[in-house]
Amino acid sequence: MIDAERIAVLTGAGISTASGIPDFRGPQGLWTRNPAAQAMFDIDEYVARREVRVEAWKFRLSAPAWTAEANAGHLALVELERQGRLTGLVTQNIDGLHQKAGSSPGLVHELHGTVWFVDCLQCEHRIPMAEVLPRLDAGDEDPACELCGGILKSATVSFGQSLDVAVLDAAVAATEAADVFVAIGTSLQVYPAAGLCDIALRAGKPLVIVNAQETPYDEEATTVLRTPIESTLPGLFS
Q1: What is the pLDDT along the chain (238 residues), one digit of tens a residue?
Q2: Which sign does the torsion angle of CA 64, 70, 71, 77 carry?
Q3: Could you list the active site residues?
Q4: What sign results for the dihedral spanned by CA atoms 84, 88, 93, 95?
Q5: Can you tell me the distance from the alpha carbon of 11 to that of 83, in angstroms, rounded to the nearest whole number?
């Protein structure tokens, strides 16, 4: 049990697998089973190849995020916030389940963006994903921006794109303000998200890792838990 009064949390795909959303790098992850799928998440491939965009839109149309429900792991973090102990909830996830569970949007820092909105890569106009999905159902395989004709893409950060500086700054500030840093359901292989662990460790803060697989930070962590996230978190912060 973590009884610290100020806790920063980083979440990855592992917290959402119990909600039916597969991860990317795990044994049954999307990229493990289909390495070619990584092209959909590479900005250069996405812009250059229409066939990649067509496959990406098919993937979005059938994304489990549209119907997924938050699980006990998400709800435990809502309770942590209600206790006034959460300095920030940094997430690598794009599914919006933290907000759906009830976490305050102002405390959720989405490092990799969100699948719930769409951006035009040319004019930067942003619209809800719900306005684009019907166009796919109507047969438009690669919908273009209705304002400028530019390429549309989910408002997520692909490989080759920069993170939002303001979001990253907020994540760093939440880490620095905490007494304990907890990494949940993340492989800690992607930076700068994993670098938040370094910030915590350099400041002498305890690092707690809850993840099914080994991570590069296990040896430096104060505590490493391999137990299921949805059953572990409710008792971790009580």
Answers
A1: 898 999 999 999 999 999 999 876 555 555 556 666 788 889 999 999 999 999 999 999 999 999 999 999 999 999 999 999 999 999 999 999 999 999 999 999 999 999 999 999 999 999 999 999 999 999 999 999 999 999 999 999 999 999 999 999 999 999 999 999 999 999 999 999 999 999 999 999 999 999 999 999 999 999 999 999 999 999 998 7
A2: positive
A3: 112
A4: positive
A5: 19
